[in-house]
């Protein structure tokens, strides 16, 4: 299993790392060149939906299809939650007739509902265990 961690690099600045060598810069909205944790949550959702839909879309549109998945949702700062997130797939289905478009969209929605772990976790909620390892 891939290990994940963040290291503090400055005031409200962190670098997220994986044991596979990946890294992402994380910080507050006022810091240039970083993602906020909430932005990463939204990106994770969009990427998961994209990856979950990749096979049915590639089967129908070809391996080199283009898609952009936009994700948005404002935070409720009073309760510190995102009450709603919205995803929009932008892709060219003009070569398909309306019935084929509808069938493909239904297939993609089912694939996302079935295998997008991030979306399923957000919809179901999850338990987070917090602990501290203190030296000294």
Automatic annotation (TrEMBL):
Gene3D superfamilies: 3.30.300.20. Pfam families: OsmC (PF02566). InterPro entries: KH_dom-like_a/b, OsmC/Ohr_fam, OsmC/Ohrsf. Signal peptide: none annotated. SUPFAM superfamilies: OsmC-like (SSF82784). It comes from Skermania pinensis. This is OsmC family protein.
